[in-house]
Design a protein that fits this description.
By secondary structure, the protein is mainly α. It is built from 18 helices and no strands.
Length: about 375
C-alpha cells in the first residue's frame, strides 16, 4: 500500500512536467526572444536549482520537517506558474523563472528520498515506482499537445499549475526516515564531496543534465524545423514515454546486472547515440522511430543515479544526497545546456545542436572513466 503514494506523486509530477517543459522554448520564440535571451532563460535559471535543491534538502534533513517544506515549496511554485504567462517581456519572465526554479528545485529529491524510505528492504524496485512518472508523462504529453494547439501556449503553464496543485495533497502522504545523528550535516556533506568516487558520479550526472537540457528544451523547436505540428510533437513524447515503461519495470534487474554506476555510464552512451540519430534525421516520422530509444536514456540514468546516491549516502543524509544529484542534473547540467543550446539552435539549427551535444556527452563520459581508472590505479599502488 505504501508504494501507492510515491507512485502517484511521480505520476502527477511528470504529468505536470509534460505540460510545460517541452513547450517553454517555443513560448520564448513566440515572444520574439533572441537566441541569447533564450540561452539565458534556459541556462541561468537552472543554476538556481543547483544551489536551491541542496539547501532545501539539507534544511529538511536538519529540521525533519520534510512534508511541511515540500508542501510550501509546491504551493509557492504554483503561484509563480499562474503568473508566468501573464507577462511577456524578458526581465519579468527571467525573475519569475528564477522563483519557479527556486521553489520546485527540491521536489524530485524529496520524492526519491521518500520513495527509497517507503520501499524499505525492497529499494531495488524503485524503477517500478518511478514508472508512474513515465505513465503520467506519456498520457499528459498527448493531452498537452492538443490543448496547446487549440488554446495556445499559455495553457501549458496553467495546466502544469493545476496538476501540481493536485500533487500537493499527495505530497502530504509521503514518509521520510528519521535518523538520529549528532554529527553536523555540513561536516558530512564536505566529507561526501571529498570522496573521489562521489565527484566522478556528479561529473556523469552533469552529463545527464546536459543531455536532458538538449532533449527537453530544444526537442520541440527541432521538430518544428522538420515541419512537425504541436500534436505530432506531443505524440513524439508519448512514443518516447511508452518505451520507458518496460525498461523501468525491469530496471531492478539492470541495476543488479551492471551495478548502479556502470548502468549510469551505459545510459549516457546510449543517450549520446540517440542525439547522433536526431542529427541524422530528416523527417518527423524518423524522429518518432528514434524516440523508441528514450526508455534507455533518462529513465535508466535516473534510476541508476538515485540508486547510487542512496547506496552511498551517509546516515541521516539521504535527502541531501538526492538533492546533490538532482542539483547536478537539473541545476548546473541543464544550466550549461541551456546557455550553450540557445545560441547553437539559432546558429546551426536543431540537427547541428544534437550533433554537438552528442559529442560533448561522450567526451565527459570519457573524462569520468579516465578519472576512475586513475583513482583506482593510485589507490592500488598506495
Amino acid at each position: 500500500m505504501k508504494k501507492v503514494w510515491p507512485f502517484s506523486f511521480n505520476f502527477m509530477l511528470f504529468a505536470s512536467t509534460a505540460f510545460m517543459s517541452p513547450f517553454i522554448v517555443l513560448y520564448y520564440q513566440r515572444l520574439g526572444f533572441s537566441g541569447a535571451q533564450i540561452g539565458i532563460l534556459t541556462g541561468i535559471t537552472p543554476l538556481v536549482t543547483f544551489f536551491a535543491a541542496p539547501l532545501w534538502s539539507a534544511l529538511a534533513d536538519t529540521t525533519r520537517r520534510h512534508r511541511l517544506i515540500l508542501g510550501l515549496a509546491i504551493l509557492l511554485g504554483i503561484t509563480m506558474l499562474i503568473i508566468y504567462p501573464l507577462v511577456s517581456t524578458f526581465l519579468p519572465i527571467l525573475v519569475i523563472a528564477i522563483f519557479i526554479n527556486t521553489f520546485f528545485a527540491p521536489v524530485s529529491a524529496f520524492a526519491d528520498s521518500a520513495t527509497m524510505h517507503m520501499l524499505a528492504d525492497k529499494r531495488e524496485l524503485y524503477g517500478r515506482v518511478r514508472v508512474g512518472g513515465s505513465i503520467g508523462y506519456g498520457l499528459a504529453a498527448a493531452v498537452a499537445g492538443t490543448v496547446v494547439q487549440n488554446f495556445g501556449l499559455r495553457y501549458a503553464f496553467w495546466g502544469c499549475a493545476g496538476l501540481f496543485f493536485l500533487n500537493f495533497f499527495i505530497s502530504q502522504k509521503l514518509e521520510y526516515g528519521q535518523v538520529e545523528d549528532k554529527e553536523p550535516i555540513g561536516r558530512k556533506v564536505r566529507a561526501l564531496l571529498a570522496n573521489p568516487h562521489w565527484v566522478l558520479f556528479l561529473i556523469v550526472a552533469f552529463a545527464g543534465g546536459l543531455s536532458l537540457s538538449a532533449l527537453n528544451n530544444y526537442f520541440f523547436p527541432y521538430m518544428g524545423e522538420l515541419g512537425a505540428r504541436e500534436s505530432t510533437m506531443g505524440l513524439a513524447l508519448t512514443v518516447g514515454t511508452i518505451s520507458e515503461i518496460p525498461i523501468l519495470f525491469f530496471s531492478n534487474r539492470l541495476v543488479k546486472r551492471f551495478g548502479s554506476y556502470r548502468l549510469l555510464i551505459l545510459s549516457m552512451i546510449l543517450t549520446s547515440l540517440r542525439m547522433f540519430l536526431f542529427a541524422l534525421s530528416t523527417s518527423p516520422l524518423i524522429v518518432l522511430l528514434v524516440q523508441l530509444l528514450n526508455g534507455l536514456n533518462f529513465p535508466i540514468m535516473w534510476v541508476a543515479g538515485v540508486s547510487y546516491a542512496d547506496e552511498n549516502a551517509p546516515p541521516g543524509l539521504r535527502t541531501t544526497a538526492q538533492g546533490l544529484f538532482s542539483a547536478m542534473v537539473f541545476g548546473i547540467g541543464m544550466a550549461v545546456g541551456g546557455l550553450v543550446g540557445g545560441p547553437l539552435l539559432e546558429s546551426i539549427g536543431g540537427r547541428g545542436l544534437y550533433l554537438v551535444f552528442g559529442v560533448g556527452v561522450l567526451i565527459i563520459i570519457l573524462v569520468a572513466e579516465l578519472g576512475l581508472k586513475r583513482f583506482t590505479l593510485k589507490r592500488h599502488t598506495a
